[in-house]
Amino acid sequence: MEYVAKQHTNGYYHVRIRASIAGRFLKSNNERAFITMQMQQLLAARSVLEDPLYAKSLAHHIDLLAYSIAEDGIQLLAYCIEVSSLEHLINILLERLGQHRSEYWLQYQQANAKAVVAINKLAGEHESLAVSARIHLHHKDWEYDRYSSIGFYLHDRRGDWMRLWRLTRLYENDASAYRSYVLHSRSRKFAAMIES
């Protein structure tokens, strides 16, 4: 696994995990559901890891703000106290995905098994809000996709493993305001594509 990380301090981070060669990273909806379930387990406040460094849980170190689990890869938006905890989460997810694949896909080809992980530090909460919109727009049915965090923003989906408060205060925790923000981001994206 190859890491590209910048400025290892506390703050907002955008993580991209993709296949090392072009193509699909996640082979099926089964794998996408598996990743979602793993994040729920690892980031729940009640979860405890066997790792003494994270004895309380990763939830004490990471606030997951947005995610996208698509065929071409995984994107996470998180606030963390130390980026090493985010790297630890990624390592666990990829290790468990490998185990899951070996259990369910006996004939699985290893061509796309290696992952490239990019971790980029963001300037702050406003840039993070913009990245959350891009993450959600990555899905065709962005308003209702079950493999993204959009339900937490628009449809009152609940779970102690997602902690949006760092971003929701920017739009007064109003789902219609966030939806308008995402739609505005999408129209700017299309306008830029037309101009180029």
Care to describe what's here?
The structure is a single chain. With 196 residues, the chain is α+β, with helices and mostly antiparallel strands. The chain has a single domain (2-195), classed as Alpha-Beta Plaits (2-Layer Sandwich). The protein is built from 6 helices and 5 strands; from the N terminus they run E-E-H-E-E-H-E-H-H-H-H. It has helices at 29-43, 83-104, 125-137, 150-154, 165-168, 175-195; strands at 2-5, 11-19, 62-70, 73-80, 115-121. A 5-stranded mixed beta sheet has the order 1-5-2-4-3, with helices on both faces. 29% of the residues are buried.
Q: State which percent range the strand residues make up.
A: 15-25%
Sheet bearing the most strands, described?
5 strands, mixed
Integer average pLDDT: 86
Total number of helices: 6
Q: Strand tally, please?
A: 5
The global form is globular
Structural class: alpha+beta
CATH class: Alpha Beta
Cα-atom Rg, whole angstroms? Answer: 17 Å
The helix/strand order is EEHEEHEHHHH
Q: Count the domains.
A: 1
Helix content: 40-55%
Q: And the CATH topology?
A: Alpha-Beta Plaits
Major beta sheet, strand line-up: 1-5-2-4-3
Q: Could you provide a short overview of the structure?
A:
By secondary structure, the protein is of the alpha+beta class. The chain has helices at 29-43, 83-104, 125-137, 150-154, 165-168, 175-195, and strands at residues 2-5, 11-19, 62-70, 73-80, 115-121.
Q: What are the salient characteristics of this protein?
A:
5 strands, 196 residues, alpha+beta, 41% helix, 19% strand, 5-stranded mixed sheet, Alpha-Beta Plaits
